[in-house]
Structure formats: structure tokens, C-alpha cells
Design brief:
Blueprint lengths: L24 E2 L18 E2 L2 E9 L13 H11 L4 E7 L2 E4 L5 E7 H18 L7 E9 L5 E8 L5 E2 L1 H11 L9 H10 L8 H14 L4 E5 L11 H10 L6 E5 L24 E2 L2 E2 H4 L4 H6 L6 E4 L22 E7 L5 H11 L2 E5 L5 E7 L5 E3 L3 E4 L4 E9 L24 E8 L20 E6 L5 E2 L5 E8 L4 E8 L9 E2 L2 E2 L10 H13 L3 E4 L2 E5 L1
Length: about 550
């Protein structure tokens, strides 16, 4: 693959202050100060706390949502009903026909203007009057990437106090989407035409130019997250992932492996024909094949030491509409991202910084609501999800895992009735997965298209026989291992046994099947039962390297 340079003159690029700060090892007990272990055999911890959120949520301003999916409804579900700490509203970067409340506009407008006129002011007004004042809420968007699929994009400005950039969003939408010029303000169009020789909205190279534009104009205050990558055949190759990551690692640092739209009959909205050829275009326990396949694309990327993380989102459009179509759960209801925030209250800049750092895990159905995973060397130095531990050859390091589950999750019967089914999530087993880390593949080589990692395997499968309950209500286990090569380690857990007909085989998730029952009410409950009967979590990796 050829490299892509920016097509935009340097004079059009904006400088941004870096977001990253140095991480310091600190005590977990007080979450302040620095020191060794917490006295209970745990590794030293970083200052901060766990938070939960969702990076992929739609409202009525998206053209495939419903008028009932108002901004106020979505915010209420996310924060009042399901207790999230932060959320990104990510409507489609297409046209808006409605305001936040589902009122028809006089004429459609480019979404960037709807975001500026309706969405951002309403969020600010609610927070100013005290509603959600302690929550982080910001506007981003979902972009139809030319020749690929959807990408969640955030563009921010404002130095240390970052806010969504409506100006940057307008410019991006004009340059990199196919929306008619009539959707944009005429004065804006005239200014952009004087600035750029053309629009870039047709080819794979145009898609890369958009990524380059984000990097050049918002180098530390933008992101581009790859949503539901395998939903449609032929959209991505492993080489495309590598190319985007090579081009802009500060922007392209995560894949939505644990996808939304889980209430659709075809889990995740993965509607390709159910043929063997389309097995890579299914979900497996609700998770995209890129992440769910042991030794697959994600493992191939991690095997080059790439810092590319997995995230879990709702992709909420609506639950069940007036025509008995079902789509997805509300934010925080079924899928959650748990992100360790090193500086809680640090705003958008702090959250984006922590998302890039990768100390996070994704979960379905509240299978776990707490997960600590670290690897500690003999010197006492520890590495956590997203980090790297340097070890001596043959040094024995200790893998530590602590987890807990809530008393009940959000399972409802009938679905979306408000009647909790009193389902208690229970982990059956947790896999410690390992893969070797080698040299980064170079463009133009066969390795650049390699989509598997043959070294990836389940190193240890932990069951209830391996863990004990500690005084804090966490189950915990430890595992010593000798470091002989550069490797990464990640966790995967489920409520399912190793061999459950139609769901798992030797511990590996099987492709999800469609639910096609004709009666709508019955179908909705069967879909919900399917989803809550197959729960998973995935951690991000820890890297261990020889020194």
C-alpha cells in the first residue's frame, strides 16, 4: 500500500497543545500519593478511578433513528437509568431533519449545523441548570468513510478546556462526505472552495486524506474509532487497519469490537447472508470477528506491538419502534466501557487521554462490574491494561486478576418493559490469552496484509476452582510465569461453559444466529434472552518485553 501525505497546505493546519501527561504509580487505597503495594498483595496502582461510558449513541437527529429518540430521553437513560459517567452523542454526519425534540425543521440541514444549533446548546443548558452537572457529555459524530464503513470521529478545540468543534465538524463534513452543497451555508461553502481545490468523498485514498486532515489540524484533540468493522463484507483488510494506524496513531487507536445494535434479529445488525463465506461477517457472542477470533486480526495487530484497543458501545438508535422493529439497548443498559481515568474531572482532554492510554475493558450485560488486571515484576514494578512491563530474561512475573459481578443486571422480561428479571450474572471462566510480539510489518510486504497471529493461544483458563473471594468482595487469582520473549497478555471472560450447543466450542464463541420468529413480542424476548444468555467481557492487553 502506498503512503498518503496530506493534500492540505500547511497554512491550513492548526496547532494543538498535547494532552498527554506522565503517569505516576500511586496507592490504590487513597488514590493519592505514591508508594508500593496496598498492603493486601496487590500491585501498586495509578492515581485515578474507574468510570463508565459510551462512545456511540444516536438521537433523532440521525436519519435512521426515530422521533421518539430525543436527546433528553437518551441522556436520561444513560445517566439516570443506567448510571454512566460520560457519553459521546454521535449522530450520523449526514442531514438533520429534526431538532432535539423530534420537531420537523423547515428544511434539512447538514448535521454539523444541527449539532451546533440544537445539540450542543441543549447539553450546555442542562448542565448549567444542574442536570448532569457531574457528567461529561460531548458531541462527536459517525462518519460514512468512503469505500469503508462507519467511523466515530471526535473533533475538539479550546486548549486545556476542550469542547466539541462545530467549525471543524462543518469543514470535515463538507470535505469528506457526499452531502449536497445546498445543506451547507453558502458563505461557508465559498470559503471552503477558496481554501481547498476539491472535495474528497469517493475513494479509499480520500478516506485516508480525511484521517490525515484530523492529524494535521487536530493532532492531539481528535480521534477516529473504527465502528462495527466486519458488519459488511469487503470493507476492511488487516492492511487497511495498519495503514490507518501508521498514518495517525493518535487518532486511530481503537476498534469497536463489542458492537451495538444488539436488539436486532441479526445480532449487531450483521445482516450478511448466513453462508460459510460470510463467517467473518458475523458476531460471536455479540463481538465482531476482528476481536472475537482467537489469533485473528486484533491479535495480529497486537503482535506487532500496536496500541490498538477494543471498546464496547450501544450504537443506540431506538429500542423497539411503533412498527415492532427492534434495534438496540440504551446507553449503559447492556454494553459498557470501563475506563480508568487518571484525572477524574479532567474533561474531554482527560478522557481522550485515558482512552488512548488503554487501561479499559468492555463488557456485555454487566457480567462484571469491576476488573483489575496487572502483571508485576520481582522489583515490584507493575503494568496495567494498555501498559508495558520491562522484565529480565527468565524473570518470574506475577499475573494478578480481580473481578466482581453485580447482584443483578438490567435484564428485563418482557424486554424494555421496566420489569427486571432478577438475573444474577455469573462468570463461568476467564481466559488469560497470550501472543508473541515481533517486528512491525512494513507497507508493501506480505506481512502487512497478514490477518492472523499463529502464536496467540489461551495460556490459562481460570474457573471458580482457581479464584478466592477477598474482603472487598472481589474474586482474585494469581499466576506466575517466566518471561522468555516479548509478549502481550489479555483477558476474556464469559458466563458460558466451554461447550454449550450453538454458543461455544472448546471455550471459543460460535457465530451468532438470527432470531426470525414472526410474532413480534415473542421475537423481542427471544432476542433479549439470546443476548443475556451469552455474556462476555474483553480486557485490553498488557505488554511484557525483555530488557
Amino acid at each position: 500500500m502506498k503512503s498518503v501525505s496530506s493534500p492540505f497546505p500547511r497554512t491550513f493546519r492548526r496547532a494543538r497543545a498535547p494532552l498527554f501527561t506522565t503517569l505516576t504509580f500511586c496507592s490504590v487505597a487513597l488514590l493519592t500519593g505514591c508508594g508500593g503495594s496496598d498492603g493486601g498483595g496487590n500491585a501498586p496502582q495509578l492515581q485515578g478511578r474507574w468510570t463508565t461510558g459510551d462512545l456511540h449513541v444516536h438521537t433523532v437527529q440521525s436519519d435512521d433513528s426515530r422521533t421518539t429518540q430525543t436527546l433528553d430521553l437518551v441522556l436520561g437513560k444513560a445517566f439516570k437509568s443506567y448510571g454512566l459517567d460520560w457519553m459521546s452523542v454521535t449522530n450520523h454526519l449526514r442531514s438533520s431533519k429534526y431538532d432535539n425534540d423530534g420537531n420537523l425543521l423547515p428544511a434539512p440541514t447538514a448535521f454539523a449545523y444541527g449539532m451546533e444549533k440544537y445539540e450542543i446548546p441543549r447539553i450546555k443548558a442542562l448542565q448549567a441548570q444542574g442536570t448532569y452537572a457531574d457528567k461529561l457529555i460531548f458531541s462527536a459524530f459517525e462518519w460514512d468513510m468512503p469505500t469503508r464503513d462507519h467511523v466515530g470521529v471526535g473533533i475538539f478545540e479550546g486548549g486545556a478546556n476542550l469542547q466539541a468543534s462545530s467549525g471543524g465538524t462543518k469543514e470535515f463534513q463538507y470535505l469528506f462526505t457526499t452531502g449536497s452543497e445546498s445543506l451547507f451555508d453558502a458563505a461557508d461553502v465559498a470559503r471552503w472552495k477558496a481554501k481547498y481545490p476539491q472535495r474528497y468523498n469517493q475513494t479509499g485514498d480520500d478516506a485516508l486524506k480525511a484521517i490525515a486532515w484530523l492529524k494535521d489540524n487536530y493532532p492531539d484533540s481528535s480521534y477516529a474509532l473504527i465502528n462495527h468493522p466486519s458488519r459488511n463484507p469487503g470493507k476492511y483488510t488487516a492492511g487497511v487497519f495498519r495503514q490507518m494506524h501508521d498514518l495517525a496513531p493518535n487518532q486511530v487507536f481503537a476498534i469497536e469490537g463489542m458492537v451495538g445494535n444488539q436488539l436486532e434479529p441479526d445480532r449487531g445488525g450483521y445482516t450478511s447472508a448466513y453462508t460459510d463465506a460470510n463467517l467473518p461477517n458475523r458476531t460471536y457472542g455479540g463481538t465482531d470477528y476482528v476481536v472475537a477470533q482467537l489469533g485473528g486480526v486484533w491479535d495480529a495487530l497486537l503482535g506487532e506491538g500496536r496500541r490498538i484497543w477494543n471498546i464496547a458501545n450501544s450504537d443506540s438508535h431506538f429500542a423497539i419502534d411503533a412498527n415492532n422493529n427492534s434495534s438496540g439497548y440504551f446507553p449503559g443498559e447492556y454494553a459498557k466501557n470501563y475506563v480508568w481515568q487518571s484525572k477524574p474531572g479532567g474533561g474531554i482532554a482527560g478522557l481522550v487521554n485515558d482512552l488512548r492510554a488503554g487501561r479499559s475493558f468492555g463488557v456485555f450485560g454487566d457480567l462484571v462490574n469491576g476488573l483489575d488486571f496487572d502483571i508485576t515484576g520481582t522489583s515490584g514494578q507493575a503494568a496495567y491494561m494498555g501498559q508495558e512491563l520491562k522484565a529480565l530474561p527468565s524473570e518470574t512475573v506475577t499475573v494478578r486478576v480481580r473481578f466482581k459481578s453485580p447482584a443483578v443486571n438490567n435484564y428485563q422480561r418482557p424486554v424494555e418493559s421496566g420489569n427486571l428479571g432478577n438475573m444474577m450474572p455469573k462468570v463461568d471462566h476467564i481466559d488469560l490469552i497470550v501472543g508473541d510480539v515481533g517486528a512491525r510489518a512494513q507497507p508493501g510486504t506480505a506481512a502487512y496484509q497478514q490477518s492472523t497471529n499463529a502464536s496467540t493461544r489461551v495460556l490459562r483458563r481460570f474457573t471458580a476452582a482457581d479464584w478466592t473471594l477477598d474482603k472487598d468482595g472481589y474474586y482474585r487469582m494469581e499466576f506466575p510465569l517466566s518471561v522468555t520473549k516479548n509478549q502481550y497478555f489479555r483477558l476474556r471472560g464469559t458466563n458460558l461453559g466451554e461447550n454449550v450447543a450453538g454458543l461455544t466450542s472448546r471455550g471459543e464463541p460460535l457465530p451468532d444466529k438470527a432470531v426470525t420468529t414472526a410474532d413480534a413480542a415473542t421475537r423481542h424476548d427471544q432476542i433479549n434472552d439470546r443476548n443475556y444468555g451469552s455474556l462476555w467481557f474483553y480486557s485490553n492487553p498488557i505488554f511484557v518485553s525483555l530488557r
